[in-house]
From TrEMBL, chains A, B:
It comes from Candidatus Aphodenecus pullistercoris. Signal peptide: none annotated. GO terms for cellular component: cytosol. GO terms for molecular function: guanine deaminase activity; zinc ion binding. Keywords: Hydrolase, Metal-binding, Zinc. This is Amidohydrolase family protein. Its cofactor is Zn(2+).
Amino acid sequence: MERTFIVRGDIIQAPEKERIEEHGDSYLVVTDGLVEGIFSSIPSRFSHYRLVDCRGHIVMPGLSDLHVHASQYQFRGMWMDEELIDWLNRHTFPEEEKYRDRDYAERAYRIFVDDLVRSPTTRASIFATIHLDSTLVLASYLEDSGIKAYVGKVNMDRNSTAGLSEDSAQSLEDTQSFIERTEGWTNVRPIITPRFIPSCTDGLMKALARLAVDRGLPVQSHLSENRSEIEWVKELCPDSTSYADAYRRRGLWGATPTIMAHCVHSTGREEDLLAMDGIFIAHCPDSNANLSSGIMDARRYLDAGCRIGLGTDVAGGCSLSMLRAMGDAVRVSKLRASCVDPSLKALTLAEAFHMASVIGGSFFGKVGLFEPGWEADIVVLDESGIATTLEDLSLSARLERVVNLKSEGAVMHKAVCGRWLF
Amino acid sequence: MERTFIVRGDIIQAPEKERIEEHGDSYLVVTDGLVEGIFSSIPSRFSHYRLVDCRGHIVMPGLSDLHVHASQYQFRGMWMDEELIDWLNRHTFPEEEKYRDRDYAERAYRIFVDDLVRSPTTRASIFATIHLDSTLVLASYLEDSGIKAYVGKVNMDRNSTAGLSEDSAQSLEDTQSFIERTEGWTNVRPIITPRFIPSCTDGLMKALARLAVDRGLPVQSHLSENRSEIEWVKELCPDSTSYADAYRRRGLWGATPTIMAHCVHSTGREEDLLAMDGIFIAHCPDSNANLSSGIMDARRYLDAGCRIGLGTDVAGGCSLSMLRAMGDAVRVSKLRASCVDPSLKALTLAEAFHMASVIGGSFFGKVGLFEPGWEADIVVLDESGIATTLEDLSLSARLERVVNLKSEGAVMHKAVCGRWLF
């Protein structure tokens, strides 16, 4: 009965991208981790359920972070004055090398997982590092935390720093080991994670593609984040018609559910591939600003019906907060409209909310909505500390204030699949 | 002796725009509100001074907010899905109309001033509304708070909503009354505040210009925030060669110290006027994103030696935090470089810090730096709640983390001109 209860509170969700649905002082009924529905009073058939009283607080679906590097959490919010390549070489790669040491990984991943638990994220697709042992540490902490996550042991067998490069056979073997050693786990599942085209040989990519299909595992990687990266891929893959096509030719494109992060500079044919092949796009607005990547055209993908969710991309992004990612997505879309293409309307709060909950959630199952039969991922917000207003606010306005003014430390309770984490 | 003391802590400042100066575990000596200097140990001549022990905490100069609307604070962080004109008509003007009621003003300004006290701002240039009584309420709360502020009774005698329009003579008379009734105050001084060209007749503008010069009062207004606004000014002032020139012809341009907020779309001749006439530019990055105004070219003004500081522009901007304004200034400058003009380098943390402290501070006097003889505006930061790192961080990296991850609620102590507010 632990995962069977009723939450009373101000319930809000974004069932469609155009629409935020508000249920002031209502009841969310959950049976064995699955949603029964939202009710204005408790139906008699549920009257014996335990009541979780969150009256006066916003109750919203959990958010899904489609792209985050756990191994970069130690330096989030820092060193943002550097350009991408310097930032990678001076900070990102040296930091990731430290995860060769299991002890370091234990201490660093402990901090990451504890903070992720306190964040509005209930589902995440996570990059670890190339190191098998450390990646298992991260996976085990997540498994115990109750957050549902895909965790990727990263593959890198070329064009990497000396301390962060694998032998191709070992890379594949370690990936297989990671898959085997997490088999049957409840919360964590493995995801095939070639860092990106430049850091993986064709041979490794093709072997990873076979592994993904054989084991029915999803895939995550990076696509068209930065112009010089795209030029590099062109040089490396002269046979490919686009960066996306390079993944496709190597078999790592939509054969199983696939997340591609960024897609800032995807054009024409690549856009078509993203749409046609049902690729999940992880839009990471803060990271794309911090690393001077640009502003992706979220409006176009969203209107085309693409599967575009949001990612924090820590540590390119500063914060683990998906609430902040929602605000950032809206803000940068306005800057794109004013600086690049005024014909494209900015994103709305409803759209960003829908992306962070429903679209992102669909990578993980029936997640992100309080509809009958959906998994009960629930976030209860703490609005304290945002100055009082003299007049009552709508639920949407209250959510918008949290998004814009209290994206850190705003979660007071969280449940994943009906299990309360705190 | 209240304003004479020594602060021990990790002292950081940005004396030049290229350089953040770090003094780990050092002593800031203050005599009667003025800085004596930063020392690595306490000089014997100051050994009898009271010690304020902030060991382990960042001690930085107070920040100067060059542009903020106190009367919009009630709805900050909300209604950001609307375009500028809808946003003004549906929310901003109806909200400002409420300040006709002194009781409402008392309740709303109390919240604003209390939050401003808790913010990293020690000096601010503030818009109230057209209402004399309410503006006096705001001024008196600020006077008592200890924050040093310029407060403007707003002038609007044309093109305004019915509830927010003044008779020209009354507008002038109320402005004069506001000036007289705040004469001799310690912390608050009046500032001449025509809302912007479209909302003031030429006659009123010219009378305000005379008033500014006669009383030696500074001026604040808005300039080139939005393209349709600029077109409107062109229609209203066919004789002027630019929006800036329209202010200049009406005498409200640099005759006394002048702040112009935004300057997002200033070009050629207008840029020259801003530089030549020593106008203070209030760069408001968050507001310019939220209202789809665009990204102003801060790099160009900064490199040209212009007086460009930062403003929060609440409620176009979401937050009162000038720490957040620093982070936003860096971030949008990167988006400008990636989306508009890659030849212009993004702002650095040092530059944003210098703008928020030294350049902005210079509007208020010798403010924003811990140099001998400068006024001791001091902010002590609380870094708690930002997850621990496994390795020690430089002072700059710690400041950057606060800017990017804890811009709200980050101030643990604050002094203005040597007087501790908390």
